Amino acid sequence: MTTFALAALVLIMMPGPDQALITRNALVGGRAGGLLTMVGGVLGLTVHASAAAVGLSALLLASATAFTVLKIAGAVYLLWLAVQMLRSAARSRREPAADEPVTVPPRRGAYLRQGFLSNALNPKVALFFVTFLPQFLSADAGSARAEALLFSAVFALLYLAWFGLYVAAVDQLGRWLRRPAVNARIEQVTGVLLAAVAIRLATAANH
């Protein structure tokens, strides 16, 4: 369990689409926006982790058609998010410099939805759990499913713990990070990163 927890934490802490999206939404919607995106993200991960534990993800990965459909849907959604953020970055760059941060009305449901869909529609997350979890399971087939569910729960808790601390840190730096020039650059980097992930996802081989 300790080995799994350490490996999972390292993977969670690695920069990627989740971190970029949570950072952006924590700046736009404050701590609530970041935390809701985080909760949505862990719910999306839980879909795949639970499916992997009961063997459904293996069936998905065995079907080229199902995998391709999910892959395209995920890529389109991430690309749509990227375009929205690049447009927001362009608007922010046109804002006059000011000491006060630019405020945006909260869209709490959108934050939760973005976090959830960005992971739930990503077949690479399914592939990750199908290949990652078995490395830590015992050879006993009878207990493997229970262990997989337990490890999935541990992964989710570590995800919440790490990004909960991360959102708190971003919120503390929020006044400086929300300035138009800084916010525009963060939006731009996030948009480019999500677009790159979308393109990579769409062009990746099915297995």
From TrEMBL:
Keywords: Cell membrane, Membrane, Transmembrane, Transmembrane helix
Keyword Iron-sulfur belongs to the record: no
Signal peptide boundaries: none
TM helices/strands, residue ranges: 58-83, 116-137, 149-169
Alphabetized Pfam families for the sequence: LysE
Membrane topology classification: Multi-pass membrane protein
Molecular function in Gene Ontology: amino acid transmembrane transporter activity
A single GO cellular-component term on record: plasma membrane
Localization annotation: Cell membrane
Record PANTHER family: ARGININE EXPORTER PROTEIN ARGO (PTHR30086), ARGININE EXPORTER PROTEIN ARGO-RELATED (PTHR30086:SF20)
Name used for this protein in its record: LysE family translocator
